[in-house]
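Narrative summary of target 7.
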Amino acid sequence: MSTRIKKPRVPMRKEPSQARSRATVDAIVVSGARVLGERGWAGFTTNTVAAVAGISIGSLYQYFPDKLSLVEAIRHRHFDDVLAVLRQATTGGLPLQQSVETLVQGMIDAHCVNPDLHRVLLDEVPGLEGSRSAHDAFLADYQLYYRDFVAAHRHADGMPSDDLLAEILSGVVEGVIHNGARKGTLDSPDLKQELVRIICSYLAKTGHD
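Modeled conformation, tokenized:
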């Protein structure tokens, strides 16, 4: 289990404004995710990240004051990827089966890019006490998308409530995907098939598809 460090959240030193600086920050975050996944929290250093990104340590420090701030950027990139999957699954008016397959495959893809990274983020990397508000904002959007997903595939006046169904559904998907990332089984066709079947069976009992 990761710990939580009680110190103010360390922001980026400056936000990139030009295409070149944005490309540099993107290279730092991508390289940081690679190093973190391969070496774990204990082996994660800004010097190593700079070397992998092909930049000087001074260039890295222009944007990130320390490795904690870089980890927060890596974590937030993952948040953005997850929310993008949920946006896709909740738009387009797809039938239940196709919507669930889109959701599950998207979540698998988001966690398969660097599965070791997600294990490290879940189990090793400390969280910053001051980053809780950003995480809370992510969770609010996360649950809202799941609520929209549920509302699209069940009767609006059904019981239990959309909020409760969204909490249950997100917990099931998150639990299976994170467990698969830890065990390295996300590429299993059986895992995807069974998760889709479970979700469809559950929502079909409360929905109209």
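The longest helix spans residues 67-89.
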